[in-house]
Structure formats: structure tokens, C-alpha cells
Amino acid sequence: MLEVASLDLHYGQSQILYGVSLSAAVGEITALMGNNGAGKTSLLKAIAGRHPASARTLRVGGDTVALSTAYHAARAGIAYVPQGREVFPMMSVLENLETGFACLPKADREIPSFVYDLFPVLRDMQNRRGGDLSGGQQQQLAIARALITRPRVLLLDEPTEGIQPNVIQQIGDALAQLRAGGEMAIVLVEQNADFAYRLGDRFTVIEGGRVKRRAAKADYGKDQLMADLAL
Fold first, then answer.
1. Chain center to CA of 151
2. In the chain, at which end, N or C, are there fewer CB atoms within 10 A of the end residue's CB?
3. Domains of the chain as residue ranges with CATH
């Protein structure tokens, strides 16, 4: 579903990513791993149109996508759940979800029932302000908002960061259900190696802005992942 080839990214005069390639298949979770500063977040931002970059190829479902703006990426079927969640604190939960309508035709501007099935707490808190939610509830809201766009590719950046264990389990269960639905490719950036290895089907490890390893879970033990991350 997602194919990125030879992507370069700069911050000013400093090059952060060097010819990075990444692929993600429908019905799978591709875990993008690496230590702090490796370039994982920069890669997701580039794919999502949040930071200028250049790539030889970026395709979603076989369709070529220009690396331009977040709006164009969203229209192409790429949904991005940023690190830090970025919910609108003064808007209600319902209003936060409705911001996902922006890239949809008017006929599709409704909240699918499966979003509330994945995260029932959001149904109960529709009128509560986003800023009044706990960190875990905000993370569920951020994921749900991304799902409103009916993505073909779901990018998640550190979804368990600062989240209580019971909500981490709920998020993991939700991602497993989305994978089983077989309608999207999921790319997961995660420092929690246990969480990432449990959910991941394929792994891409980045070090110093370059791809260090690509492997399927069947050929890649958790001890190898920990060694690649030097943990």
C-alpha cells in the first residue's frame, strides 16, 4: 500500500535522512525502529507532508503521490498521528473528530461507528474539551481523528509515550483490530520495544538517517531487535 524510495530530508544545511526507503503492506503493521535522533519522526513527517523532502518514489496503493502538503497527503489516503497527540484543547471531543472531515467529500463527512467501537470512552466524552482529557484519552482521540479520514495508510508516532499501561493495552488491541480489518497499512514508530515487537509484522531499523535493517518478524527475533537498538 505504501512505497517510499530514496527519500532525502534536510533541516537547513543539515541532512537528516539519506536515501531512505520504506514499504508497508495492507493488513500488516510495519514497525519503524531506531534510537532517539535516528530520523524516524522526520520520515513520518515527510511522508505526511509535514516537512519538505525529496523522494524518487512515493506511492500509495500504486498511485504516485507528490511530497507537497499535509492536505494532499491526507487526500491521497495518508493519515498521521503525531507524537504529542496535538489535539485542540479548547474544542470538544466531537469537534476534534470532525476536523478529520476537512479532506473528505461532503457525502462522507460522518463519524464511522467503528471509531467509537474501538475507543468507547470517546462516545461517552463527546462534549468534553480535548484539553480536559487524560493523556491516554487524548491519544485515543488523536488516533480516532486520523481514522475519520478513511486512510489507506496510518502513520503513528510514539502512541504509547506517557500513557498508562491499561490504555497502552487498549491502543494495542485497537491496532490489532485495524490490522485484522485488512483495509490499511500501518506504520508504527515506537520506543517501547516490547509493544512494537508484539504488534509488528515487519521491521525497518534506522540508524543515523539510514536504513540499517529490514526484516520480517518470522526472521527477526526480539533479541536481534534489542541488539540493533543497542538496548
1. 11
2. C
3. 2-228 (3.40.50.300)
